[in-house]
Amino acid sequence: MNIGLIGFGYWGPNVAKHLYNNNKVNLSVICDSNTTNLDKAKKIYIGQTSYETDYNLLINNENIEAVAIAVETSKHYYLAKKCLLAGKHIFIEKPFTTTVEEAKELEEIAKKNNLIIHVNHIMLFHPVIKKIKSIFDAGDLGELIYIASTRLNLGPILRDVSAMWDLAIHDLAIIDYLSNGQGFKSLNVMGDKRYSPKESLVFLSIRYKSFIANIQSNWISPVKERRLIIVGTKKMIVFDDLKMAEKLIVYDKGISVISGDNPNYDNYVVRTREGNAELPFVEIGDALYNSIDHFISCIDKNTQSISGPSQAIRIIEILINASDY
């Protein structure tokens, strides 16, 4: 299968590397209107692929079956639509589009032409998130009570999207994946615009149908943090993505509502249950490589991606609602 890449700027080189290293596909063309970016690509891949400054030449190339889009968010809808209308499957970076209407239109075009859209909600393909999903699906966590997520660092501060659209989208995708697409009932959001026309820090709280979530996205923090806490009625999980070891810990902790042993005490205090902490085995793997491989598999098997347009639309709906506050 021949794949072309549009965009070799900030994230495009990472996509190119994993496309090139996947033996199921051929990275046929790298396209970037910026000749400086294209020169960087040429130094890496030399004559092992071809190069274009005009994306129309890539999109209209009949030998290319799929296109990876790694450009700024404002160009997603336009380029994705051109690719789909040209009969190309698309791998596209998050966020899918800036409006629900655009996302739904692209979804309809893909359905009509039997094409695959894969939005790179990369955290769904992280080995730890896959492990957490298996724990949750097995019922070991019990009923979900709440999820708390923090994504903090000092920069880079973007100008085209807010910290929420850039960072919280990862956590919204994880929550959607773990809860099998459970819809939200209400939300509250607070943010502040610092050093950018968009919010550089955002605190987002969401009430889903059966649990709540709190997500902090911050580009102006003195420390870097990537932590996810998931609390169920049976067990609790902490995922710290910055740790070299012990990234995932499953705590056999919870709350025991006991009455009768000591009525005077039990009327005022709910007892906690302290158990063991487990470090489950997690397979080694690269999230971006896994994401690309899933996209290729979906094309081969003609199956929808777990991070396809339907999921992307649910996430964009939350972001749009939060942006209106």
Describe the 3D structure:
With 325 residues, the protein is of the alpha/beta class. It has 2 domains: 2-121 and 289-308, NAD(P)-binding Rossmann-like Domain (Rossmann fold, 3-Layer(aba) Sandwich), CATH 3.40.50.720; 124-285 and 317-323, 2-Layer Sandwich (Dihydrodipicolinate Reductase, domain 2). Helix content is 34%, strand content 28%. It is built from 10 helices and 16 strands. The chain has helices at residues 12-21, 35-45, 55-59, 76-85, 100-112, 127-137, 163-178, 263-266, 287-301, 309-323; strands at residues 2-6, 26-31, 50-52, 66-69, 89-93, 117-120, 144-154, 184-192, 201-208, 212-218, 220-232, 236-240, 248-251, 254-256, 271-273, 277-278. The strands form 3 sheets. Strands 8-9-10-7-11-12-13-16 form an 8-stranded mixed β-sheet, with helices on one face. Strand 9 (201-208) and strand 10 (212-218) form a beta hairpin. Helix 4 (76-85) runs parallel beside helix 5 and helix 7 packs across helix 10 (309-323). The chain is globular and about 80 Å long. The protein starts with a strand and ends with a helix. The mean pLDDT is 94.
Can you give keywords for this protein?
alpha/beta, Rossmann fold, 16 strands, 2 domains
